């Protein structure tokens, strides 16, 4: 069942509290463990990617964070407050879209938001126009939702979240149904929310390119476990080898110098030049350049090989799209309790 975060009275959010913190978070459905021992730390004011293949336990984790399904074990805190003990306070400044957002199809986009705002009060009503503008739906606000594309409904779901002026946005596969132009607009919107407005965005996705281009920090999850987490650049590098592409005017002489260097583990020709794998970290690049120059080799290019998040993801996850063999077609959903 699609869900939105619920909001209560004004919350006291500790300034130094992470947006999300979990310890040993576990969820079992009968004999199947969907989420196992998850330790997450989501810093405030960041775009955090929760990256994993379909069936990895991402949506189940989100539902536990929102108090929509109970954890089998472990602890979690949202904006400094324990869930489920202080769920109402914790979620007051949280907006969430879990799975596909539902609306009244025969009402317009703005009418749907007015219904939500009526429950949340006059301040929420005053944010309707800006929320629609933020997600690029101002010109379609008076159209009936039944005529919206899936991507437009996703954006209206984000607008609904913004009515509460959330400190934390939790978005589950938010670019489903968006065309390439819509995805670019979405990226810009999320970056503005983080960089200009100081919000935290927790973005669950199986799309590597989306996470790498939007997020500052990410966790990679597979089969219900956190495999690794940290800044995007560090995740992409991971434990990977430090590599260089070197362009020279004398490849044979260069290879002779490189093979003799203790800073070089491997050196070989490639279509781009000479590919060098360093023995240590990237700081050896300057010394390699100096050694080549001393040997009379002209160096026209020397740059590090950038490892993509996609490479790292493929290295450490077991599969991209197939759910575990024992996974049901869909996870059990509990009714939202207010």
Structure commentary:
By secondary structure, the chain is α/β, with parallel strands linked by helices. It has two domains: 20-237 and 312-316, Rossmann fold; 243-305, Alpha-Beta Plaits (2-Layer Sandwich), CATH 3.30.70. Helices cover 31% and strands 26% of the residues. It contains twelve helices and 14 strands. The strands form three sheets. A six-stranded mixed β-sheet has the order 6-7-8-3-9-10, with helices on both faces. The chain has a four-stranded antiparallel β-sheet with strand order 2-1-4-5. It has a four-stranded antiparallel β-sheet with strand order 12-13-11-14, with helices on one face. The two termini are 15 Å apart.
Could you state the CATH homologous superfamily of the largest domain?
P-loop containing nucleotide triphosphate hydrolases
Could you please say which CATH topology of the largest domain applies here? Rossmann fold
Write down how many β-strands occur, each being a DSSP E stretch of 2 or more residues.
Answer: 14
Strand order of the largest sheet: 6-7-8-3-9-10
Mean pLDDT: 83
Low-confidence segments, ≥5 residues, pLDDT <50? Answer: 1-11, 318-338
**CATH architecture heading of the largest domain:** 3-Layer(aba) Sandwich
Output the helix-strand order.
EEEHEEHEHHHHEHEHEEHEHEEHEH
Task: List the domain count as a whole number.
Answer: 2
The main β sheet shows up as: 6 strands, mixed
The termini sit apart by: 15 Å
> In CATH's first tier, which class of the largest domain applies?
Alpha Beta
Portion of residues in beta strands equals 25-35%
Instruction: Evaluate the radius of gyration.
Output: 24 Å
Tell me, what's the shape? elongated
Proportion of residues in helical segments: 25-40%
Q: What would you call the structural class?
A: alpha/beta
- Continuous helix count: 12
